[in-house]
What does this fold into?
Amino acid sequence: MPVNAGEILPATFFARDAVTVARDLLGRVLVHETSDGTACGRLVEVEAYRGPADRAAHSYGGRRTARNEAMYGPPGHAYVYLIYGRNYCFNIVTADPGEPEAVLVRALEPLAGTELMAVRRDVSLRRPADLRLLTAGPGRLAQALGLTSAQNGLPLLGPPLYLLAGEGADPENIVAAPRINVDYAGEWRDLPWRFLLRDSPFVSVPPPGQRRARMR
DNA sequence: TGTCCGATTGGT
DNA sequence: CCAATCGGACAG
It folds into this structure.
């Protein structure tokens, strides 16, 4: 893992509303250590999902089920669920216990453990651009980091699964855009609660009206 | 118990 | 553009 990525983010970091935490998470570093090795990446795209009022959220209307139970738990824990029977989505629980908010991690910039990620994803890295196939998209990054329902509800406050402060993000470089694939959410569909780094080629979908940033 | 469907991905 | 694929949500 990167030695200069700073301290582990403490529980207090996550004990804020999901929109605030989402913005603050950009530029941080997610690390997962397993017996197969360590993989980590810098967060370049996230989405905030807020409590009962947010029609796009699994906790809309106060829904509380076996699946989304982790959203109601303490901040700084994982909420992982299976979607379309094939992909996992990795979320970071925020806000106080009982307030079901979370941040979906939508894309990472691979930093270390890329070989391990490539094996898990079953892709070959022939050119630099292939790195996008590892972690550009929520299902992809979950698979690349070995995140499944086995991690659902686990704390993110230390090994084997945690976040490092990293360099953070330049506010000028942060773009806010509507969330992806929440057409069912009515008026909540268009809220700019997807946050991404303008200059990152590793985002899943560039913001409206912008071309994908070039790889350097 | 039965039916419907998704905070996605990859191939046509 | 569309099929894959299955656990969970919800109605009855």
User: Anything to note?
Assistant: Chain A has a mean pLDDT of 97. Residues 47, 49, 56-58, 81, 83-87, 89, 91, 104, 106, 137-140, 179-182, 184-185, 204 of chain A lie near DNA strand B (CB under 10 Å from a C1').
